[in-house]
# Entry
Amino acid sequence: MTSLQERKITKNLPSPQRFKVGMIGGGTVSSSAYAILSGDSSGNHLLSRIEVVSVAVRDLKKIRLIPQDILTDNPDSIVDDPNIEIVVELMGGTEKARELIERALRNGKHVITANKSLVARHGNELDALAARAGVSFKYEAAVAGGIPILRTLKTSLGANKLRKTMGIVNGTCNYIVTQMSDHQMSFTDALAKAQELGFAEADPTFDVGGRDAAEKNVILSKVAFGKDVDVSQVLADPELVKGITSIESRDIECARKLGFTIKLLAVSEIKPDGKLLFFVSPHLVENKHPLAAVKDAYNAIFIEGDPVGDLMLYGKGAGGGPTASAVVGDILNVVEGISSGVPVISASTLGSAEFATLSKEMHSKFYLRLLTQNCPTAFGGIMWLFGEANIAPEMVQQSITDRGLLEIVIITEAVSSQKLHNALRIISGLPYFEKTVNALPLLEAS
Ligand SMILES: NC(=O)c1ccc[n+]([C@@H]2O[C@H](COP(=O)([O-])OP(=O)(O)OC[C@H]3O[C@@H](n4cnc5c(N)ncnc54)[C@H](OP(=O)(O)O)[C@@H]3O)[C@@H](O)[C@H]2O)c1
# Structure
């Protein structure tokens, strides 16, 4: 073949399809996603075929890295633009974002979001809507930022019967407990430092109260176990969602002396009867357990499955770059699907999740720190009531606090949480009893 013929053939080949993306939001995550999509594409050849054609923002005058000529203050123009195939929602909030995503899906566009609150509340309906429209709805970035956890659960681990996920999914809480244990800081000082460094919001209640972790756990439960958890039900139940506000320096110290560290874990476990054990709580994690080594603002998800066994994914759970990595990964996944001609099935859309019946029956050893008045009968009375409740302690320590109270630290045998809480309710009625400072499950290394 002559070089002239070669040139002619190349010329006649259809030019590779280009994929037009519209982004709603031009803030932290969008700017990083835009930088990846408009930068060096050597990492994946498909990157060069993706073009961000429009970005919706609120304030057109704000200085940003995204070129002015593709900015709009009208997000409707993106979801209604027939030339845009992929809509990336990165504006946050639930109502307006939901309305725009629904319209984009109905208009036959693939949608990607990092919006965990929206997915935790409406993910199931939006998955179903996407499936009906024959498009993808993806939200890898909504849980644990840069860690590719959802696709791993659904696709890479698709051969497994998954049993349990335990996640450190809130970087703010993990940063605070790390500062408390590694630098002997009080909760208040650790929180102030987290705020100073941008790891915590000015109003940190959503994070330190465990609510952010609970929303992410709703998504994990859906993707790992196909269970649709009612987010408002769990957020309204203080037994199911506990944050780190009750953790005192003394708990950190007691944990350290016992060979443990305190971590906020979001746990989701499928029981043999099909019920879902779902809770967020600080745990005493044995120092030998891989989750104990997850420090500062890092996230990790520990997974138990069969036949894979135990595994853990670890990485940055927030920040523009890591979150944009997950967003662009979703875009590439959609583009791969379209280019290969294989129907695009969202990693998280393989059938809608069924309504979850929750179990509150957790079986674990517990760390207890109790305060009572320092009277001669106090210790004996409390231990007698544990005996009556059929709960044997594995370890008991007593000491007198600065305020002259008797502090009792107990590690129980493995018991059901209901049985323990019933015993603590009876104990709290003793006339000399002051309070249960903390009752936290233990996670031991296997
Ligand atoms: N940041 C992270 O580390 C992280 C991690 C995981 C998930 N996420 C999620 O990712 C999403 C984006 O977070 P972000 O940190 O990038 O937020 P951000 O910096 O506050 O950016 C939000 C963007 O949305 C735009 N916007 C808001 N309302 C709008 C409206 N009605 N119409 C048009 N544009 C509107 C804002 O415009 P202006 O710039 O004009 O104000 C801004 O550009 C959120 O759902 C968040 O929960 C973030």
Notes: Residues 320-340 form the longest helix (21 residues).
